[in-house]
Specification:
- By secondary structure, this protein is an alpha/beta fold.
- It is 46% helix and 11% strand.
- The chain has 19 helices and twelve strands.
- Residues 2-114 form the Response regulatory domain.
- It holds the Pfam family Sigma54_activat.
Length: 461
């Protein structure tokens, strides 16, 4: 983790610095906003900013946003001033810490930033296979493509690979290719020189240089403009980049991990993604299955989120009731893990009594998840399917087979040949089954029931 302390707090934050460094973090100091921005533009980067509450935190937040620099801010002050704390939070700080700092509090803040809620939780065998492959290739420098639907945890898996690589103590830098306008993405990736374009007030080190020695995550790479892809391909192949407005190549040493929620093979056929870039990135593909295909993970994750948000909100950790588990297990989870996490956060807040019941498993609109509005046809089909399924429970295979054969024969008005074709069995097998049922005293629809099939008149009759 990279910690940047902003302001004249070095003496007061000796404890924070020591704790951070003991945990493998690098610590940089800046006297004011200007120096802090120079540090961040210079490629050192930061995962967390500890900022003197006496400084203009709102101004710093606006500067960071203007230059698309993303790092959480924790305000610090030498007094336990409630007004200062509230003002700092309103200005954009994530937390306020009074000084001198409590060692355990500083350690907790640093741990929270380092973990950033990216714990890998799984139990299902389908996910276990993906994790096993990730472990096998983590130690290499091979490029990795992580694919899967939105919300499945692609960035979580990317960080997992990084933390188990030889680059684990070096930076992990992430950039969302879909979140940055096309005309700014090149500068974000490769940096720029002062005056390279309107608004380039100083040299800015891009993500490639910032990630040198570590890992660069190109999140949602499928959204990158095809014209920029050629420059990215050169950077990956030759391990050099050209800053916007620069005059000489800059060497970089990084491992590339890319993610996509789209089928890039289809994008290649459509001409929106370069085939040679896909080959370069897709050395190893980690395909994360959607949550609906990982049923054993649903309850494992649900329990994890209950614990997490009960602790975060200071409420009792209630067990999930059997009926609530049924609701969770049968939902489709179109938003995958992200949707489940939000659902369990709401459940923790809304639950009453000793358990989290189905009344607390709600949609964002406040409706019960199992009673959410669906199109009438879909709701009817779902209800019919559930009724059929429930009717089968507790019966033997022989009983179900018998009823299926007899109902099919009845539907075919006794026509043995037609019934056998529908059932996918031979006419001989069908007759043997019917004889068996008849011997047991079960009535059988007779052959040649009137109205079965009208007979065609014979020629010359």
């Amino acid at each position: 983790m990279r910690l940047l302390i902003v302001g004249t707090l070095k003496g007061q934050l000796t404890t924070a610095t020591k704790i951070a460094m003991e945990n493998g973090a690098t610590v940089t100091h800046a006297e004011d906003h200007e120096q802090a921005m120079r540090v961040l533009r210079g490629g050192k980067g930061a995962d967390l900013l500890l900022v003197d509450v006496a400084l203009d935190i709102r101004d710093l937040v606006m500067r960071l946003e203007a230059e698309h620099i993303h790092a959480p801010i924790v305000a610090c002050g030498i007094t336990n001033d409630a007004r200062a704390a509230v003002a700092a939070i309103h200005a954009g700080a994530k937390e306020y810490i009074p000084l001198p700092p409590d060692p355990e509090l500083i350690a907790a803040v640093l741990a929270a930033v380092a973990n950033d809620s990216r714990e890998l939780v799984y139990r299902d065998e389908a996910m276990a296979r993906v994790i096993k492959l990730a472990q096998q290739i983590a130690g290499s420098d091979a490029s990795v493509m992580i694919t899967g639907e939105s919300g499945t945890g692609k960035e979580v898996l990317a960080r997992y690979v990084h933390t188990r690589s030889a680059r684990a103590k070096r930076p992990f830098i992430s950039i969302n290719c879909a979140a940055i306008p096309e005309h700014l993405l090149e500068s974000e990736l490769f940096g720029h020189e002062k005056g390279a374009f309107t608004g380039a007030i100083a040299r800015r080190i891009g993500k490639f240089e910032e990630a040198t020695g570590g890992t660069l995550l190109l999140d949602e790479i499928s959204e990158m403009d095809v014209r920029l892809q050629s420059k990215l391909l050169r950077a990956i192949q030759e391990r050099v980049i050209d800053r916007v407005g620069g005059t000489k190549p800059v060497p970089v040493d990084i491992r590339i991990i890319a993610t996509s929620n789209r089928n890039l093979a289809d994008a290649v056929r459509e001409g929106t993604f370069r085939e040679d870039l896909l080959f370069r990135l897709n050395v190893v593909n980690l395909k994360i299955p959607p949550l609906r295909e990982r049923p054993a993970d649903i309850m494992e994750l649900a329990q994890h989120f209950v614990k997490k948000y009960a602790e975060a909100n200071g409420v009792p950790m209630r067990p999930i009731s059997a009926e609530a588990k049924r609701v969770l297990s049968t939902n489709r989870w179109q938003g995958n893990v992200r949707e489940l996490e939000n659902t369990m956060h709401r459940a923790v807040l809304m639950a009453q009594g000793d358990e989290i019941g189905p009344d607390a498993i709600l949609t964002p609109d406040g409706d019960r998840l199992d009673l959410a509005k669906t199109p009438p046809a879909v709701a009817h089909a779902t209800m019919a399917a559930e009724q059929v399924t429930r009717a089968l429970v507790g019966r033997t295979v022989a009983d179900v087979e018998r009823d299926l054969i007899l109902e099919t024969l009845k539907h075919c008005l006794g026509n043995r040949t037609h019934a056998a074709n529908i059932l996918g069995i031979s006419i001989r097998t069908l007759r043997n089954k019917l004889n068996e049922y008849a011997d047991g005293g079960i009535p059988i629809t007779p052959a040649g029931t009137p109205g079965e099939y009208p007979r065609m008149p014979m020629i010359g009759a």
